[in-house]
Amino acid sequence: KMDDDDDDIPQLSSHSLAALQEFYLEQQQREGIKTSQGFNQYSIGSIEENWQLSQFWYSDETASCLAKEAVLAAGKGGKIACVSAPSVYQKLKEQDGEDFSVCILEYDRRFSVYGEEFIFYDYNQPLNLPENLLPHSFDIVVADPPYLSEECLEKTAETIKYLTKGKVLLCTGAIMEEQAAKHLGVKICKFIPKHSRNLANDFRCYVNYASGLD
């Protein structure tokens, strides 16, 4: 009988269905906000995290603090490169009109909405960079390697060393302290970065210059 077959189809409880509908409504509302006038495309969260790419955005306070530090370290008219650190890039772009320039090196092509400042970047090919990205042309490089592995850090470090004139601001796990010192000569800071969603791993900042993060 057909009725018996219907019993095999899994049914959502009314509570689950309501929760699912609420989720979709929130998604639609968020998308509506994104497309409405006055939306700041540089706001953190304007592009959703993709956990499959190991993306975790900083909290607004952390991104602001790191952006402020990058501007101070770069100096007047300075050039800043954000490597796999889109939250910092977005916060820097919110400071429209400030006397610095910035670009974002990122694997996620959704960030290509930022135009010429976006540079596609795959840490597995650390020096596969555009010809116009000249060596040692950035006053500071802010980097957040996507994975907590020495291989990822070592390859990202190649990119950082190619780009920077000297200053490095690295964000990665506390467990990477030894490797960070080995590959980039950076030391851990007192400042503890936070993410918009809590991470299980203890996260820290590292620098190779006298910073305002201590």
TrEMBL record:
<keyword id="KW-0489">Methyltransferase</keyword>
<dbReference type="InterPro" id="IPR019369">
    <property type="entry name" value="Efm5/EEF1AKMT1"/>
</dbReference>
<dbReference type="InterPro" id="IPR029063">
    <property type="entry name" value="SAM-dependent_MTases_sf"/>
</dbReference>
<dbReference type="InterPro" id="IPR002052">
    <property type="entry name" value="DNA_methylase_N6_adenine_CS"/>
</dbReference>
<dbReference type="GO" id="GO:0016279">
    <property type="term" value="F:protein-lysine N-methyltransferase activity"/>
</dbReference>
<dbReference type="InterPro" id="IPR041370">
    <property type="entry name" value="Mlase_EEF1AKMT1/ZCCHC4"/>
</dbReference>
<dbReference type="Pfam" id="PF10237">
    <property type="entry name" value="N6-adenineMlase"/>
</dbReference>
<dbReference type="GO" id="GO:0005737">
    <property type="term" value="C:cytoplasm"/>
</dbReference>
<dbReference type="GO" id="GO:0003676">
    <property type="term" value="F:nucleic acid binding"/>
</dbReference>
<keyword id="KW-0963">Cytoplasm</keyword>
<protein>
    <submittedName>
        <fullName>EFMT1 methyltransferase</fullName>
    </submittedName>
</protein>
<dbReference type="GO" id="GO:0032259">
    <property type="term" value="P:methylation"/>
</dbReference>
<keyword id="KW-0808">Transferase</keyword>
